[in-house]
Amino acid sequence: MIATPAPQITDAVRRNMALLIQLRWLAVGGQMFTILLVHGPMGIALPLAPLLAAISLLVFINIVTLYMLHRFEAGLEYALFTALMFDIAALTWQLHFTGGLANPFAALFLLQVVIGAMVLRPAASWAMVAASLGALAVLAIDPVPLALPPELQDEEFSLYLQGSFVCFGLIAVLLVAFVTRIARNLRERDAALAAIRQRAAEEDHIVRMGLLASGAAHELGTPLATLSVLVNDFRAMPELKAADLSADLDDMENAVQRCKTIVSGILMSAGEARGEATERTTMRAFLRDIVDEWQVTRGLDALEYHDRFGQDVAIVSDPALRQVIGNVIDNAVEVSPQWVGIRAARQGEALELTVTDKGPGFAQDILDGLGKPYRSTKGKPGGGLGLFLLVNVMRKLGGEVRAGNREQGGAEVTIWLPLDAIAYPTGART
Fold first, then answer.
1. Spatial distance between the Cα atoms of 32 and 68, rounded to a whole number of angstroms
2. Per-residue pLDDT tens for 40-67?
3. Total structural domains in the chain?
4. How far does Cα 169 stand from its chain's mean position?
């Protein structure tokens, strides 16, 4: 399971243009085949010059459209409308020299109108309708009739019916192919919009959580400072010295200092560092410090760390990143206190940090909803925020999160982070 940044909205115009280019190539091939069939085996003399000129126009339109599709970002909707209008003009030109309205393929104008209605704005779609009606009116004025050979003159109606059947089949196949592709484009667009709305809701949730955490950190600052003063006062009291409580007081002071560090980290993550400058460090030192915190400060002997990072790089210590990595380790330790493995490796210009455990693994619904808040099997109020925060912090840093279950048992969470996201700026003053 990979949690990646929310996808961008599908560019429907570009996809529709690419689809129309494919259909136009099919039209060029079909027209060439029809001209060769009618002019050759059927023996019907066709005005080849104007018909081939129309096909050349379609090829030119496709080449220009391809160029615009790869070179330009804006104005593609106007190019799409213009290309469809040229299609109507080319079809009108071909029908004028092949019987006009008496040609059964005049029904292809309906295909043009339907395509325009699906891919264009309403005003442009109605313009397509007007252009098609105008083309039909033009075809009614002095078209060039087909010169049928004597042996086919008595079968003119039969040829018309056969042409109508072929035209109907062509329209049906192309409409089904086009509509299904357009429907898929619309589904992808709707999915992208839903993902963006979900991401906006999650980011709003993060903002509210950040405000709550920041406010709580500010409120906790005063009582922690008071506790620190009281511990120092207790050390000076003769009664407590006589009771030999120095070890207990040391533990209390360490706990207070630990709480102060957590509060400072929360405020730093919220952009409100309490007079503590962002630290320059290296990737190895950053990771080693996190591991040491669990091995030494928290007394976890079962943590196994493998450094495969390679050449070290200078980074800026990110408190939010440190916190979410700690959350992942904390979750692993909670379900697998006997052993937790951490492996740091370098993949190109990115850090790949993997945390594994020997616990029960992730439930499938957790993997399916990776990164969504309150997805947890712990049953605790507020549970399920660790992975949620991890996914969103990594998303903001341009990274990814992979989570899954190991074949030999236990869970595995892999963090992929571009080094540029936390790299120390070259030339910056230390």
1. 26
2. 777 777 888 888 898 898 899 889 888 8
3. 3
4. 38
Using DSSP bridges, classify how beta strands 303-308 and 340-346 pair: parallel, antiparallel or unpaired: parallel
352: left (phi over 0), alpha (psi -120 to 50) or beta: beta
My answer on whether 215 and 182 are in the same domain is no
Q: What distances in angstroms separate CA 26 from CA 32, 89, 173, one per listed residue?
A: 10, 18, 12
pTM metric for this prediction: 0.47
Residue 400 sits in a domain whose CATH number is 3.30.565.10
Residue type, 405: N
Q: Are 355 and 342 in contact (CB under 8 A)?
A: yes
On whether both 258 and 173 belong to a single domain, the answer is no
345 inside domain? yes
**Is the domain of 176 the same as that of 233?**
no
Assess if residue 216 is contained within a domain: yes
Tens digits of per-residue pLDDT, 339-384? Answer: 899 999 998 889 999 999 988 888 888 887 776 665 555 544 444 5
Look up the domain containing 243 and give its range.
201-269
Number of continuous H segments (helices) and E segments (strands) in the chain: 13, 8
